[in-house]
Amino acid sequence: MKKMGSKMEVSEAEIQKVYHRDCILLAGFAIFMWCILSTILRQALQVAGDSTTRTIMICIALVTGSALSLGLFAVYRHLKRNKDVIYKEDLENLKLQKKDA
Fold first, then answer.
1. Which segments cross the bilayer (predicted)?
2. How many CA atoms, within 13 angstroms, populate the side-chain half-sphere of residue 92?
3. pLDDT tens per residue, range 13-29
4. pTM of the model
């Protein structure tokens, strides 16, 4: 726990390391999401009876995937703009916990 008035120095390199790790996780999640979505869509298209149903399924999949991708992009932009605020306190607390242990 962070003690009142105690601060641990956090370097920019440490913040960048955690930020890059989170960006890789976001990219991995986006790739995984599109793989799952495309697999489900392929299976559903095999069951669909007519071209209208297939078209609707494709549109729904694209809208869903786009909305989720835009959400992930918004998270990425938020992390990029506020990485110092987001990661600094967490890294300070982690250092204090390691110091106390």
1. 23-43, 55-76
2. 15
3. 999 999 999 999 999 99
4. 0.78
**Segment 7-11 mean pLDDT:** 80
**Residue 5 zone, left/alpha/beta (φ > 0; ψ -120 to 50; rest):** left
Q: Is residue 89 part of a domain?
A: yes
On whether residue 8 sits in a domain, the answer given is no
Number of domains in the chain: 1
The DSSP code sequence of the chain is: -PPTT------HHHHHHHHHHHHHHHHHHHHHHHHHHHHHHHHHHHH--SHHHHHHHHHHHHHHHHHHHHHHHHHHHHHHHHHHHHHHHHHHHHHHHHHH-
Among 95, 36, 24, 25, CA closest to 65: 36
